[in-house]
């Protein structure tokens, strides 16, 4: 149909170069179970993505029954102090309702940033699974 | 061997990732450790965020990112031509923020200082801010 031109060539022309969304864009998955909200974050958390993180987390926290927030940062590949702002802001909301927070699974630079900012000192361990 | 890279971009948040990506690619040529590379990316992100959020207050302006590598010493210069900082010593203080309403942690300069060997801030109110950061990479034995 295409003569000498292989069909795949046309397909390639309309293909987008691989901007790896899973590595660069922030992905947020929220799971609530009773009074506990777990936020699984992956990708990059900076000032650009912090606004969406804040909006999505606050929408979930509008359920006043939630008194514990758990951040699972296992998939976060980059975070700067804008991410610390997001975590501290949600911590304040939990404190306002007498709740608690934990931050888990951070690696590398994210882990060092959390230590530096003192976020871990605000966390309480999960008493039961 | 000395190497330099000079870039300039608009102060939009999306460019934070671009700026730290450019810096990372440049630093990679000097064979850093994973930790050193991560430190520099984070410091660049903080400095560029400072230019966008504080320098220009989310309005549009030019941000310059100049990189230099010489004998394992990395120098990063981030410059904006925005409102400048009234009190640099106060801005350096951890948890101080001029924008508490937008939920800033006030840790930008503290993070730059923790992750780089030196951070110099030159600012004139109404003219802009220039942040000069240096980090020496450990030699690859």
Largest interface by residue count?
A-B, 22 and 24 residues
Say what the CATH topology of chain A is: Transcription Regulator spoIIAA
In total, the number of strands of chain A is: 4
Largest sheet composition of chain A:
4 strands, mixed
Strand adjacency order, main sheet of chain A: 1-2-3-4
How much of the polypeptide of chain A forms β-strand, as a percent range?
Answer: 25-35%
Walk me through the structure.
The complex is a heterodimer of chains A (129) and B (141). Chain A has five helices and four strands. Chain A is globular and about 60 Å long. The model of chain A has no long low-confidence stretch (mean pLDDT 87). Chain B has 141 residues and is of the alpha+beta class. A five-stranded antiparallel β-sheet of chain B has the order 1-2-3-5-4, with helices on one face. The longest helix of chain B is centred in the N-terminal third of the chain and has 22 residues. Chain B is globular, with a radius of gyration of 14 Å. The interface between A and B is medium-sized, with 22 and 24 residues.
């Amino acid at each position: 149909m295409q003569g000498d031109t292989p069909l795949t060539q046309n397909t390639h022309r309309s293909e987008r170069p691989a901007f790896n969304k899973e590595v660069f864009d922030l992905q947020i998955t929220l799971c609530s179970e009773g009074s506990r909200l777990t936020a699984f974050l992956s990708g990059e958390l900076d000032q650009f993505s912090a606004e969406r993180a804040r909006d999505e987390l606050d929408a979930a926290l509008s359920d006043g029954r939630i008194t514990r927030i758990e951040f699972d940062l296992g998939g976060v590949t980059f975070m700067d102090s804008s991410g610390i702002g997001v975590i501290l802001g949600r911590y304040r909301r939990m404190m306002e309702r007498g709740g608690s927070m934990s931050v888990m699974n951070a690696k590398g630079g994210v882990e060092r940033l959390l230590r530096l900012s003192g976020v871990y000192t605000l966390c309480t361990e999960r008493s039961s699974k | 061997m000395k190497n330099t890279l000079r870039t300039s971009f608009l102060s939009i948040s999306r460019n934070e990732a671009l700026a730290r990506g450019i810096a990372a690619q440049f630093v990679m040529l000097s064979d850093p450790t994973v930790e050193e590379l991560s430190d520099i990316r984070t410091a660049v992100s903080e400095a560029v965020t400072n230019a966008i959020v504080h320098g220009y207050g989310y309005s549009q302006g030019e941000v310059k990112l100049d990189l230099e590598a010489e004998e394992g010493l990395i120098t990063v210069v981030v410059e904006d031509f925005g409102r400048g900082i009234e009190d640099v010593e106060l801005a350096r203080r951890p948890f101080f923020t001029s924008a508490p309403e937008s939920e800033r942690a006030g840790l930008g300069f503290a993070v730059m200082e923790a992750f780089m060997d030196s951070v110099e801030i030159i600012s004139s109110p109404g003219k802009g801010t220039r942040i000069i950061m240096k980090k020496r990479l450990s030699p690859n034995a």
